[in-house]
Design a protein that fits this description.
- The chain has about 450 residues and is an alpha+beta fold.
- The protein is built from seven helices and 21 strands.
- It has three domains: about 5-270, Glutaredoxin (3-Layer(aba) Sandwich), CATH 3.40.30; about 285-370, Sandwich (Immunoglobulin-like), CATH 2.60.40; about 375-443, Type 1 dockerin domain (Orthogonal Bundle), CATH 1.10.1330.
- The chain is about 20% helix and about 35% strand.
- The strands form six sheets. Strands 2-1-4-7 form a four-stranded antiparallel beta sheet. It has a four-stranded antiparallel beta sheet with strand order 3-14-13-8, with no helix packed on it.
- The chain starts with a helix and ends in a 10-residue tail after the last helix.
């Protein structure tokens, strides 16, 4: 770093420090910047060990100023094209976008303590990543207030940088920390710069050297470290940082060779996404019968026009579900069929989720009832033709307090429609011992 650059950093730092100690009024609007990073999970750039960087930055799909009134949402859409952005060989299976909301915090930060390489840190409040197959969302839970965003400042010729990259990727794939990251490969072998990574490092972070890690836009800065345990400690702290009430969702749709559409929604003090409308009770095909597929239909809408997935649930003595079925367009009718093999009473209900995995409530239930009769006179449910054991079972039930038949309809030997009585017993005895007619077949 040249002396003039360092001097400029000190002057800038003093100015920002004076600004930072001045009291400011509470703002009802969220002022900041949305950055959408276009990265390759397996980067085209190789580190000093000859291995690909992970999540190497290609370019920005969007850098946009935010001014979001509290309680409202902001939507950003657009198209990114690899060729027009100066890249070839971009594939659907190796592309990701990372959307990050940075607040205009202007916090004075020393990028190389205690040497005074000051920069103005705009801290990240929310981050999420998406691929063409999977939408993403900023997440918070009991252990984290937001998804942390980490920028790895690195260069191809840097001999310590592969160790930093390996440590970060091990943490990422381990899944114990709530963060995403990008590799800002600023320089190639020979010192040629790669933009916009180089400008992000030098212009925004007053970067002093490699490797350099910036957590959430500068809430913490680590210089020269390669230790996984240290990164884990910093990430644990960053996950607990108090952030603005920002919700963020992101998706991308691969539309052509080397081209995708993107969508980002940001909510300030409100959800970035509206839950789907709870469906009505599902309809079903007329006169449902055992052994014949029963078709269920349901329709609902999503205020954002998102694609929907339906989850059908059958309750009763039988418990089964459809799993998530879709996608369906908002307002389109979804259909699922199920074949009931046994007769009894059931309830069918359905719920939906949108592409951000936000679910509706369950619908009201639709009741279905099938006769349980499979083999009349099989009183003890043995599965065979009527025999002496069925006769004994029926006598015990009727006269000695024995257990009730599991299916009363099968114990109605003469198909009178009444509960089993003496006429059914006479009918069964006549069939078994005196050549009487066989039990009436089940419907």
């Amino acid at each position: 770093m040249k002396a003039s650059q360092r001097q400029f950093g000190i002057v800038l730092g003093i100015a920002l420090l004076l600004l930072s100690i001045c009291p400011t009024a509470h703002a009802a609007n969220y002022d900041g910047t949305l950055r959408i990073y276009v990265v390759e999970p397996e980067s085209r750039y190789l580190n000093d060990d000859g291995h690909p960087y992970h999540f190497g930055l290609l370019s920005y799909a969007l850098v946009e100023t935010l001014n979001i009134p509290e309680g409202t949402r902001h939507v950003a859409t657009g198209t990114w094209n690899a060729a027009s952005s100066g890249f070839s060989g971009v594939t659907e299976g190796n592309i990701m976008i990372q959307a990050v909301s940075f607040a205009n915090t202007n916090i004075l930060t020393d990028g190389y303590p205690p040497y005074g390489f000051f920069f103005s840190a705009d801290l990240a409040d929310a981050a999420a990543a998406a691929t063409p197959a999977v939408a993403g969302r900023n997440t918070s839970d009991g252990s984290s207030t937001h998804t942390v965003f980490l920028e790895e400042g690195t260069a191809q010729w840097c001999d310590n940088c592969p160790l930093t990259s390996e440590s970060l990727h091990n943490l990422y794939t381990g899944g114990t920390r709530n963060f995403i990251y990008t590799a800002l490969v600023g320089e190639l072998i020979g010192g040629s710069q790669i933009y916009p990574a180089y400008s992000r490092l030098t212009d925004d972070y007053n970067n002093v050297g490699y490797p350099h890690c910036y957590f959430d836009g500068g809430s913490a800065v680590v210089v020269g470290d390669t230790t996984q345990g240290h990164f884990d400690t910093i990430l644990t702290q960053a996950e607990q940082r108090v952030v603005n009430d920002i919700d963020l969702v992101v998706s991308m749709d691969w539309t052509a060779d080397g081209e995708f559409d993107y969508l980002v929604r940001i909510g300030y003090g409100t959800s970035a996404n509206v839950d789907p409308v709870t469906p009505n009770a599902p309809d079903h095909s007329a006169d449902p019968q055992l052994g014949v597929p029963v078709e269920f239909d349901a329709t609902t809408t999503d205020a954002d026009g998102d694609s929907l997935w339906y989850y059908w649930d059958i309750t009763g003595d039988l418990a089964t579900n459809s799993g998530w079925q879709g996608p369906y367009a908002s307002g389109a009718t979804a259909t699922w069929s199920y074949t009931f093999a046994t007769g009894q009473s059931f309830e069918a209900r359905v719920r939906v989720k949108d592409e951000w995995s936000d679910p509706s409530d369950y619908s009201p239930a639709t009741a279905l009832s099938f006769g349980c009769c499979d083999n009349r006179a099989d009183v003890n449910q043995s599965g065979g033709f009527p025999d002496i054991s069925d006769l004994v079972y029926l006598v015990a039930f009727m006269f000695t307090g024995g257990p009730a038949p599991e299916c009363m309809e099968e114990a109605d030997i003469n198909a009178s429609g009444d509960l089993p009585d003496i006429s059914d017993l006479v009918y069964l005895v006549a069939y078994m011992f005196t050549g009487g007619p066989p039990p009436i077949p089940c419907p």
